[in-house]
């Protein structure tokens, strides 16, 4: 005799398919997975192991409701419970999935998709640069929407000492690699220059590099870092324009829009929530 099984209230499927004549609805899903997933989201946001009551509260449910989900997640390796404190943290499978996700994310592809809207918002030319074999290299340029353009092209190196892009890598990059690249630029003593050291310290504090009329007279730049899930700088986003068209104030609308773009990309690469 065939037995019929029913699901508890939290375990029913969310039917989001479309009928022949009915309106289009979202794809069908399992509500219990969506409910339990709030616990994983809460752990990810917290960034640390949490006691049951605190974790349940962060996920918007009671402890009695949360516990069975955590037991199942524990069997899968998505969470694990500390045997001493009893706190719940992300398990080995969750960590493996996170690492695989980081490996699959291409920061340049994400930045390229971001740049057209950023150029329109800022009203100036924007670029993305990575650390290449010998230093910062511009990998993509999105021209300003106005007739006033700044001559830039893909593949151009960026001076670590004199460009907004370069100074981002000088401030946040691996010190030995930065020192070697500066030496290749003929700036072997740059890191011993108190003024340059203070400028890099200010960039680290503000998360923003500002250059006025430094490499080219009449041209200014803003730049921000983008970090991966391990906290390493992987990109520099820069805005470049005639000095009269670029507001270098950190609280200015252009700087704030650039900072926000850098943070969005950083979050997509696995840092922050």
Automatic annotation (TrEMBL):
<keyword id="KW-0805">Transcription regulation</keyword>
<dbReference type="GO" id="GO:0045892">
    <property type="term" value="P:negative regulation of DNA-templated transcription"/>
</dbReference>
<protein>
    <submittedName>
        <fullName>DNA-binding transcriptional repressor YiaJ</fullName>
    </submittedName>
</protein>
<dbReference type="InterPro" id="IPR036388">
    <property type="entry name" value="WH-like_DNA-bd_sf"/>
</dbReference>
<dbReference type="InterPro" id="IPR050707">
    <property type="entry name" value="HTH_MetabolicPath_Reg"/>
</dbReference>
<feature type="region of interest" description="Disordered">
    <location>
        <begin position="1"/>
        <end position="28"/>
    </location>
</feature>
<dbReference type="Pfam" id="PF01614">
    <property type="entry name" value="IclR_C"/>
</dbReference>
<feature type="domain" description="IclR-ED">
    <location>
        <begin position="93"/>
        <end position="271"/>
    </location>
</feature>
<keyword id="KW-0804">Transcription</keyword>
<dbReference type="InterPro" id="IPR036390">
    <property type="entry name" value="WH_DNA-bd_sf"/>
</dbReference>
<dbReference type="GO" id="GO:0003677">
    <property type="term" value="F:DNA binding"/>
</dbReference>
<keyword id="KW-0238">DNA-binding</keyword>
<dbReference type="InterPro" id="IPR029016">
    <property type="entry name" value="GAF-like_dom_sf"/>
</dbReference>
<dbReference type="InterPro" id="IPR014757">
    <property type="entry name" value="Tscrpt_reg_IclR_C"/>
</dbReference>
<dbReference type="InterPro" id="IPR005471">
    <property type="entry name" value="Tscrpt_reg_IclR_N"/>
</dbReference>
<dbReference type="GO" id="GO:0003700">
    <property type="term" value="F:DNA-binding transcription factor activity"/>
</dbReference>
<dbReference type="Pfam" id="PF09339">
    <property type="entry name" value="HTH_IclR"/>
</dbReference>
<feature type="domain" description="HTH iclR-type">
    <location>
        <begin position="30"/>
        <end position="92"/>
    </location>
</feature>
